[in-house]
Design brief:
The chain is an alpha/beta fold. The chain folds into two domains: about 1-135, no CATH class; about 140-280, Rossmann fold (3-Layer(aba) Sandwich), CATH 3.40.50. About 25% of the residues lie in helices and about 25% in strands. The protein is built from nine helices and twelve strands. Strands 1, 2, 3, 4, 5, 6 and 7 form a seven-stranded mixed sheet that branches. Strands 9-8-10-11-12 form a five-stranded parallel sheet, with helices on both faces. It is elongated and about 60 Å long. The protein starts with a strand and ends with a helix.
Length: about 280
Amino acid sequence: MFNILIKYDATAWETDQLMRMPVGRFKDYEGYSGSEAADISSDEPTTLKSLEGIDSLLMYETGSKGPNVDLVRFGCLRSIKVVGKELVFRFEEKGKFPRTVVEEFAERLGIHSSLWELGTTHWAIKDGSIPKAMLENLIRSYDLVFSFAGEDRQYVKRVADYLRRKGVKTFYDQYEEANLWGKDLVEHFQLVYRRSGQYCVIFISKHYVNKMWTKPERQAALSRALKEKGEYILPARFDETEVPGISPTMHYIPLVGKSPAKFGQLILEKLGITTHMRNAV
């Protein structure tokens, strides 16, 4: 079985804090939840434990307005509790689906054939599992995505390896060979650099501005930064090369004389992660 949670508030799922659903919307529509959910009830909180760790989709209602309503978060729920008139939980994200993919697989997901279900705030528990063919369309989630020139790979790889040992999910091309195999890279990189990371680290050098792939990566990242108007792009410089779209007033980290491990430690600080915390995981 798997969960589908739908809300109208277009900011409901855009948080790393506790998420909430009114208790009255849990399994409240007849026919939306499957037979496997028959013994699960908010009146018996211990039964909610079976919903933790299983595949879950967090969506917005049809007609919701916001920058992320066209995306569906995929992952699993943790620490589900009844608090007053709400169900509260934490969400562990694994990736995102374009909403169109979920609509395409609606029948196989057990979503009401008229799609009326997608326009209703509720928490449904579906029978079966997420179709494998749908999972092939998953846009994975990363703490960081790296954009760099091949000439700077030796340094970047050591940073990526350092962060990987600390448990940071990093999009670094050599880690993704199997996943990238056969994909349209222009289309896929648009999704990765515009949708998938918490931050995009751009390693600026004289080589960076002349590479074929760094331009679409940077354009996708800049599109995200412009849309969200927040700290998404984190520039790091090997030299003073000017890069189109990167403001000269944007604060950067100089890499000359800074070891990959030292730079990796700065990234951990930016993510709000201490070395002690990661070592304890």
